[in-house]
Design a protein that fits this description.
Number of helices: 3
Oligomer: single chain
Strand order of the largest sheet: 1-2
Strand content: 5-15%
Distance between the termini: 25 Å
Structural class: alpha+beta
Helix content: 40-55%
Radius of gyration: 13 Å
Length: 62
């Protein structure tokens, strides 16, 4: 699935010593940048396919 490929691509970044490093995105703006989608689509992803991975405290996405 395209979304899984994009997440894996962005979450695994090679450092200079060759070890893999995880990167995290924060909030809807991070989801928008990660998937290159609009605000509405990012909101839909957060509420559906990313629901288990998103932690939210009030209005703040963690």
């Amino acid at each position: 699935m395209l979304i899984n490929e994009k997440v894996e691509e962005n979450s695994k970044q090679e450092s200079f010593d060759g070890s893999e490093e995880k990167s995290y995105v924060y909030g809807l703006s991070g989801i928008r940048r990660l998937f290159s989608v609009s605000h509405t689509t990012a909101q839909r992803y957060k509420d559906t396919i990313l629901k288990e991975a998103v932690m939210q405290n009030g209005r703040r996405l963690l």
